[in-house]
Amino acid sequence: MKIKTLLLAALALLIGTFATAQDTAYYGEKINKKRILSTKKFSSKIADQDSLTDIKLKGEILDTCPMKGCWMKVRLDDNSEMMVKFKDYGFFVPKGLKEGNTIVRGKAIREVTSVAELKHLAEDAGKSKEEIDAITAPKERVVFYADGVIIE
């Protein structure tokens, strides 16, 4: 009787652990959930700088690449979006995510994205030919290069 109770308790613990583990997924280098910047603090830190290195940022996922999962868009505090790319194209996240939260670790760089790159990203995102053709100027933006990602 005691063995049966112990086995049932162990099974319940195992199932509970498995269910919890499924709620958080790690990609790239394993990172922890300590010393994470909010999008508000991040926005104020990057406002007058060209880059920030070795930072962790928590934000809302707006979209991921539907082709390969090779990029992600995260909402910033001012409702703008930040492109997240993955270090050395070394890992991907699930394709087509359009909700949830993420924690990314890496560096943020203010850069100018060329028209060709903007059109390529629009194609990956499944934009119409008209939307792609409307891209005619480069865009200055902050791009985050992540070496590790947590999706919650």
TrEMBL record:
InterPro entries: DUF4920. Residues 1-21 form the signal peptide. Pfam families: DUF4920. Keywords: Signal. It comes from the Bacteria. The keyword Signal applies. This is DUF4920 domain-containing protein.
